[in-house]
């Protein structure tokens, strides 16, 4: 065997051209086998186009191999008996697995008819209402909303809206889902709802400023209870209460549910209980919700619920309903090219994505990125696709820390977070995605110690480099942003050179979490940091603290290190 290998080696050493020719043929054969297996294993999606031109969405380029990978993922997740429906549907009838296989791929009109025939079969589960006009300034459905520019389906939108107790679910632009209790727009032509769903090309998901709206037939009336209303606190009655909270109703049998139901029906994000009067409105300069009172001042029993408090005429008990405050939801690209490049710089895991969400809501302009993250683009960060020097975005996300990269920017917002929290957040992102979690085996294995050894020094050098090479740097601590969002956001917006009215910033406070908040339910039951790790990280914290104070800044927050 050894002699044979030696002869082959001598043969190809003398004739390198033949060697590379054989290598090329081998790679070509392997590629053909892979492509053949890919196409033969691709699931049959009713009405899905095969050609690149047909696969393109509006304004989006053909994705090539990504289109194939989407097909394989759909095959892995699709149940054998067809599409599953959540428990909130009334009917238990099953949908045929081969529904729509013989449909044609005609124009906009045929797609609308095709989607309508599918909707009629689901009428006992979620009834299709029609195609409606929509406006970015004044939404037709004013409840919760979310976007997914890759995997949006009709069922996913319906399911999310139904779980939160909404009556209507609407889909727009093939990828946007809106929920609400009331339709506040006029009908549009059915042919105008002509865009296929990004994750389900056999169905229609609205159009440009057009909503395909469904009425959700809930299995139980209790599903419409607003148990997820957020308690905001006890507040003194504002002056000019009829202007601050314009909608009101006398309720002799007052309860939290009744007041929240009333304000939700009236499409207001705030429900304020004032004894036997329920008031509704928006956070505003007249009623900013910044000065909370002692909750005992609102501890007056409700007439209909013995164990609930309903406030009084002077002290209001305030809840945030599920109605989305749309005063800060419109976003667009800059109307003219930006004269300066502003960085939103942070160490990975320091809350950069959350800060981008806040900045977009506060300014009304998209943020860009030094990199491209498809998952962020699919969740609504449309500036993600632009080149970072395009000048169309209000600021640029970056984790870079070299002198050359830093000096490319004219100014920067430097976001700093407690390294113990930032390292764990980035480790979770690396092994579990933007809102997922690393597995227990990763924390207990070699991955975590190696990660800390490589990333902990970077946490310090990142901040030190930006303080040293940055031209105009505004330092914002993640902890301060969480604790006093309104004030910190004002500082950030001022650096960006945008005038944001106070009502818009108050709207941001009510929408602050966004879609990229990691759930706190899966916290580690043990401390992953060893004494050796803590000793090293503490040294880095002291170094950064000294560097901040050297520039007449406040230093790191007290909870970074025991004082």
Automatic annotation (TrEMBL):
Coiled coil: none annotated. Residues 125-217, 228-322 form the WSC domain. It comes from the Eukaryota. Keywords: Repeat. SUPFAM superfamilies: P-loop containing nucleoside triphosphate hydrolases. InterPro entries: P-loop_NTPase (IPR027417), Sialate-O-sulfotransferase (IPR051589), WSC_carb-bd (IPR002889). GO terms for cellular component: Golgi membrane. SMART domains: WSC. Residues 78-121 are annotated as: Disordered. GO terms for molecular function: sulfotransferase activity. Residues 92-106 have a biased composition (Basic and acidic residues). PROSITE patterns: WSC. Belongs to the WSCD family. PANTHER family: SIALATE:O-SULFOTRANSFERASE 2, WSCD FAMILY MEMBER CG9164. This is WSC domain containing 2.
């Amino acid at each position: 065997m050894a002699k044979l290998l030696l002869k082959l080696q001598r043969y190809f050493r003398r004739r390198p051209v033949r060697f590379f020719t054989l290598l090329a043929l081998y790679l070509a054969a392997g590629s053909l086998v892979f492509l053949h297996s890919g196409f033969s294993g691709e699931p049959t999606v009713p009405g899905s186009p095969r050609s690149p031109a047909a696969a393109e969405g509006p304004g989006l380029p053909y994705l090539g191999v990504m289109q194939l990978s989407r097909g394989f993922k759909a095959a892995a997740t699709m149940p054998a008996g067809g599409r599953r429906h959540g428990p909130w549907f009334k009917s238990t009838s099953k949908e045929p697995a081969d529904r729509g296989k013989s449909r044609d791929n005609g124009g906009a009109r045929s797609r609308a008819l095709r989607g309508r025939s599918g909707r009629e079969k689901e009428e006992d589960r979620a009834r299709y209402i029609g195609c409606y006009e929509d406006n970015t300034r004044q939404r037709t459905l004013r409840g919760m909303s979310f976007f997914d520019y890759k995997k949006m389906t009709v069922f996913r939108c319906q399911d999310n809206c139904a779980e939160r107790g909404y009556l209507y679910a609407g889909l727009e632009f093939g990828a946007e889902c809106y929920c609400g209790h009331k339709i506040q727009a006029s009908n549009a032509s059915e042919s105008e709802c002509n865009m296929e769903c990004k994750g389900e090309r056999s169905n229609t998901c609205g159009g440009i400023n057009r909503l395909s709206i469904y009425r959700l037939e809930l299995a139980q009336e209790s599903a419409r209870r607003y148990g997820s209303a957020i308690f905001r606190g006890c507040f003194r009655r504002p002056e000019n209460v009829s202007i601050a909270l314009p909608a009101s109703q006398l309720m002799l049998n007052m309860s939290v549910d009744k007041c929240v139901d009333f304000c939700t029906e009236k499409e207001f994000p705030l429900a304020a209980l004032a004894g036997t009067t329920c008031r509704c409105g928006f956070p505003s300069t007249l009623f900013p919700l910044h000065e909370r009172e002692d909750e005992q001042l609102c501890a007056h029993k409700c007439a209909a619920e013995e164990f609930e408090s309903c406030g009084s005429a002077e002290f209001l008990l305030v809840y945030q309903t599920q109605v989305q405050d749309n005063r800060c939801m419109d976003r667009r690209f800059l109307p003219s090219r930006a004269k300066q490049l502003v960085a939103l710089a942070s160490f990975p895991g320091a809350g950069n994505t959350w800060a981008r969400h806040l900045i977009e809501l506060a300014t009304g302009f998209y943020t860009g990125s030094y990199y491209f993250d498809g998952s962020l683009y699919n969740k609504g960060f449309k500036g993600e696709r632009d080149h970072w020097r395009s000048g169309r975005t209000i600021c640029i996300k970056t984790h870079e820390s070299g002198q050359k990269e830093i000096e490319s920017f004219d100014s920067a917002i430097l976001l700093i977070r407690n390294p113990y929290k930032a390292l764990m957040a980035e480790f979770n992102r690396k092994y579990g995605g933007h809102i997922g979690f690393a597995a227990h085996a990763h924390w207990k294995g070699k991955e975590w110690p190696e990660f800390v050894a490589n990333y902990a020094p970077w946490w310090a050098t990142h901040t030190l480099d930006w303080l040293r090479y940055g031209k105009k740097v505004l330092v914002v601590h993640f902890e301060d942003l969480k604790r006093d969002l309104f004030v910190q956001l004002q500082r950030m917006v001022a650096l960006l050179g945008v005038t944001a009215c106070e009502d818009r910033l108050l709207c941001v406070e009510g929408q602050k979490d966004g879609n990229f908040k990691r759930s706190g339910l899966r916290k580690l039951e043990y401390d992953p940091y060893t004494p050796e790790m803590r000793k090293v990280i503490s040294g880095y914290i002291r170094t950064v603290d000294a560097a901040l104070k050297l520039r007449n800044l406040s230093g790191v927050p007290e909870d970074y290190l025991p004082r």
